[in-house]
Design a protein that fits this description.
Elements (H helix, E strand, L loop, with lengths): L20 H18 L11 H4 L9 H5 L15 H13 L5 H29 L12 H14 L5 H4 L5 H17 L4 H4 L21 H15 L8 H10 L8 H27 L2 H7 L7 H16 L7 H19 L4 H15 L14 H19 L4 H46 L8 E5 L4 E2 L2 E2 L5 H5 L10 E5 L4 H9 L7 E7 L4 E8 L12 E2 L5
Parallel strand pairs: 1-4, 1-5
Antiparallel strand pairs: 2-3, 5-6, 6-7
Helix pairs in contact: 1-5, 1-6, 5-6, 5-8, 5-17, 6-17, 8-10, 8-11, 10-12, 11-12, 11-16, 15-16, 15-17, 15-18, 16-17
Length: 549
């Protein structure tokens, strides 16, 4: 058998050598990259749901209180059980101040760890499934290069902004951390695979598979990680499919691979069955869970089509179509196609694409998708992208390698820039939120108990960042003493005169204040007030508070 040219030696079967300083340093850099990229936005203020999860929720007094706490989010269509997320917020409050800095840094580092785990998983999967003759060339050979590209692109992918920059977006990122740790544990190979393969290895030598029946400690760790995933986010119920596919990818032997994968996955299916039985008995009935996935407008077929299109755009970080956005979509597609074009990498790339769809299944029938749903699907998709990119970089033709480098530079640069734009939007959203509360308190500094605060057209959505889409009441109450007994009401797209007539016609004597928000200059105005003595009047009091700029 003729040996390959040294130009193709970047694509080698050597798995990540855990002791390699360069490999460890590369993973560490990927883990720190989100913090370095998003450092300017570490002081971005609390927004929307943050006022429920962070500033108003009581801290559990014990671990038992954490385990017995319900999610209790008032906007949910069904009850939740996320003790791991509750514990993470409690630990942040216990060891840091009440400001947003600690929460942001925790999210940044968590996202970085997820990116490093993704790099490790892709490298190990690639080393186990794709074998070619090894030549004495760089330490960062094919599998490691594929993993590092996948981890790098995930660390700076702007579609993850909602899970990273928004404090309340930690839920899915935390669940993904345990999910990726579980997959990394699943694909952990015997020591014989982790060592470098000698140059005499034949082109398609079957890689030794891990034992069919792992030691009890292997399953104990895996089941603990899966329990943490289930305790973080309900859509993680699809994770056993990912465990099965990952295990399936670890051996070429057709006589063993299916049996081994099924046997390995059965304990996770059993734990999932126990979880669903307890959930549907004590937390929320199965009918409520089913309704929660389909209760937001539109027909089923229309919802599925719209959400799949959102998935396609989100994987390429496309919010609005433009020339760079279209180029990014084509670039990601080209890298995936490169992985599919090679026979040796095609099964692995197809498996990762299938896992992308599986991870998105819990959201595919909703009447509307949001960026945070893309977090876990992105890990599988970018794994396929990393494999395709590494294949192009291993090509013998200099022009192909040069084009691959330019494409990766374009995608990385665009992603980093878009991520910083998303960070600016979230920071601005926090400033608007803080200014809104301050202006409200300035216009109504000491309202009597039972006073009604009415708001015309409060800010709901600012580009990519939530403002008052939820938790409006908790947000406004941040400026007043606890238990102030204020009644806060929103009026969206209602004429001011109609709201004033409605308030003036009331006979219950409750004092009321009507505010109007001007998005042009971000000012809040008090346009009408009423109390027991003035009830029924149509007197307008125009008072403007200074805008935030």
């Amino acid at each position: 058998m003729t040996s390959r040219s040294p130009r193709s030696s970047l694509w080698t079967p050597s798995a990540p050598r855990i002791g390699s300083l360069l490999w460890i340093a590369s993973l560490g850099l990927i883990a720190l990259l989100p913090t370095l990229l998003l450092w300017p936005f570490r002081h971005a203020g609390f927004v929307a749901d943050d006022h429920f999860f962070v500033t108003t929720s009581p801290t559990p007094s014990s671990l038992l209180a954490v385990l017995t706490s319900s999610w209790g989010f008032p906007q949910d269509a069904t009850s939740g059980y996320r003790p791991v997320v509750i514990l993470s917020y409690a630990l942040t409050r216990a060891f840091w101040t009440d400001g947003p800095l600690a929460y942001h840094l925790t999210n940044f580092l968590l996202h970085g760890l997820n990116a490093a785990l993704l790099a490790l998983i892709v490298a190990r999967l690639t080393a186990a499934r794709i074998t070619t003759p090894t030549l004495a060339r760089p330490v960062l050979a094919g599998p490691m290069l594929a993993g590092l590209i996948a981890g790098l692109l995930f660390a700076i992918h702007p579609s993850t902004h909602e899970n990273v920059i928004w404090i309340s977006g930690r839920t899915y990122a935390l669940a993904s951390f345990f999910a990726l740790a579980l997959v990394a544990w699943t694909v952990s190979a015997p020591a014989s695979i982790l060592a470098s393969t000698s140059a005499s290895v034949p082109a398609r030598m079957p890689v030794e598979a891990p034992r069919t029946r792992p030691a009890w400690r292997q399953h104990a760790v895996g089941l603990f990680l899966f329990a943490c995933v289930l305790g973080s986010y309900e859509p993680a119920v699809v994770l056993p499919a990912g465990v099965f596919l990952a295990r399936l990818a670890m051996t070429d032997d057709p006589r063993r691979r299916w049996r081994d994968a099924i046997a390995f996955t059965l304990p996770y299916v059993g734990l999932l069955a126990i979880y669903l039985a307890l959930r549907w008995t004590y937390i929320a009935p199965a009918a409520a869970d089913l309704q929660a996935t389909t209760n937001k407008g539109g027909g089923l077929a229309m919802n599925v089509a719209a959400n799949l299109w959102f998935l396609v755009k989100g994987l390429a970080a496309v919010a609005l179509f433009s020339t760079p956005a279209i180029m990014a979509m084509l670039g990601f597609a080209a890298l995936v196609a490169a992985g599919l074009a090679a026979r040796v990498s095609r099964p692995l790339v197809l498996g990762l694409l299938a896992l992308t769809i599986i991870a998105f299944l819990p959201f595919v029938s909703l009447g509307g998708s949001t960026w945070r749903f893309l977090y876990l699907p992105l890990t599988a998709f970018l794994g396929a992208v990393g494999i395709g990119a590494a294949r192009l970089l291993a090509d013998r033709r200099l022009l192909v390698r040069a084009l691959a480098v330019l494409l990766l530079l374009f995608l990385s640069g665009r992603s980093a820039r878009q991520y910083q734009i998303r960070g600016q939007e979230w920071q601005h959203a926090g400033e608007i939120t803080r200014s809104f509360v301050e202006q409200t308190v300035r216009l109504a500094p000491s309202p009597a108990p039972g006073t009604e605060l009415h708001f015309l057209d409060p800010p709901v959505y600012y580009q990519s960042a939530y403002i008052f889409i939820t938790m409006f009441h908790d947000t406004i109450r941040q400026g007043y003493p606890p238990n102030n007994a204020l009644d806060i009401v929103e009026h969206r797209q209602e004429p001011a005169d109609a709201v004033i007539r409605q308030l003036a016609s009331r006979t219950d004597g409750a004092p009321a204040l009507l505010f109007a928000w001007s998005p042009e200059n971000e000012r809040l105005s008090l346009v009408w007030r009423s109390n027991a003595a003035e009830r029924g009047t149509d007197a307008r009091t125009h008072e403007s508070a200074g805008g935030m700029r």
